[in-house]
Amino acid sequence: MASSTDRFLYEQLADELLRAIDRGALRPGDRLPSVRRLAGKRGVSVATVLQAYLRLENRGAIEVRPKAGHFVRRRSAVAGEPRAPRTCSTPARVSVSDAVARILEALGDPDLVPLGSAYVDPTMLPVAALNRMLAQLAREAATAGARYDAAPGLLTLRRQLARRSVDWGAPIGEDELVTTIGATEGLTLALRAVARAGDVIAVESPTYFGLLQAIEGLGMRALEIPAHPRTGMDLDALDEAVRTQPVRAVMVAPNVSNPLGAIMPDQDKARLVELSRRHDLPVIEDDVYGELAFDGSRPRPLRAFDRSADGRLLLVGSVSKTLAPGYRVGWCAGERRCCGGSYRK
């Protein structure tokens, strides 16, 4: 065990090396002197240098490479966890269309990384397999695209979605589903079903710009509810807002929200469902990222926690983030009175 003098020396040595790293004298990837060499240069014991290096390693400043020595560690460029925004006390008109137009225009620039939109790299999608399937379908169902499919959409697709909903933990009947041109149309239809121009819609802050654009396009107002980067919408703030403001509906993404990536805990989802029931408040759930949880699991949507099945919860999804953005295949799930636009009191 090191004496108190040795302990002081290794702390002093570690702090000196850390200052050299912070100032750039020792850069990421640089090799530190060997333990014996540094001990000889500083006139300290090998144990002192080992303790100093261990201290730096525990702080994440250096790393040990087997049979190579100690190296300055490359520090992560990931930003820290963002702070939750302040609660907004009043609804506001939304004006984002010009900014959205610029974002969409930038998507066509190959020199830009599209951070403004959740854009999936095509190399990560099963493009070749999908193209083979499309070619086979074109041969076997040559007249499939020669007729209109009446609302609520292609029956075979709705049946497959209904089967898949069992894996989501929220079984949905095929008659509850309406197919849409991507999730954006589904969100717009859901908004039109539960609110009208001038109504107040509670949204997460920050939220996906497409939701704000839909609110703007329908002449509605947005009320920002702060969202935590790990657990999502602040339900205490939402409860207070519903009590003090004329909130007509809530738009929320409990599973892998955009842009924070938050996943709402199950107990909070159950609480949100209860809040919806208690205040007779429709909730539109954006679930386009539900299949993309970080740990490979499939978080359950809000409908999995609904025991009343009274139609207040509308679920919107698509394959744009998981399969093929260009297919523009989405859906909206809810009782017919919601999807058909007759929910309003």
Explain the overall architecture:
With 345 residues, the chain is an alpha/beta fold. The protein is elongated, with a radius of gyration of 27 Å. The longest helix is centred in the N-terminal third of the chain and has 19 residues, at 4-22. It is built from 11 helices and 11 strands. It has helices at residues 4-22, 35-42, 46-58, 97-106, 127-140, 155-168, 182-194, 209-217, 235-244, 266-278, 336-339, and strands at residues 62-65, 69-72, 92-93, 177-181, 200-205, 221-228, 232-233, 247-252, 283-286, 313-318, 329-333. The strands form 2 sheets. Strands 3, 4, 5, 6, 7, 8, 9, 10 and 11 form a 9-stranded mixed sheet that branches. It has a two-stranded antiparallel ribbon with strand order 1-2. Helix 1 packs across helix 3, helix 2 packs across helix 3 (46-58) and helix 7 packs across helix 8. It has 2 domains: 4-72, Winged helix-like DNA-binding domain superfamily/Winged helix DNA-binding domain (Arc Repressor Mutant, subunit A, Orthogonal Bundle), CATH 1.10.10; 152-339, Aspartate Aminotransferase, domain 2 (3-Layer(aba) Sandwich). Strand 6 and strand 7 form a beta hairpin.
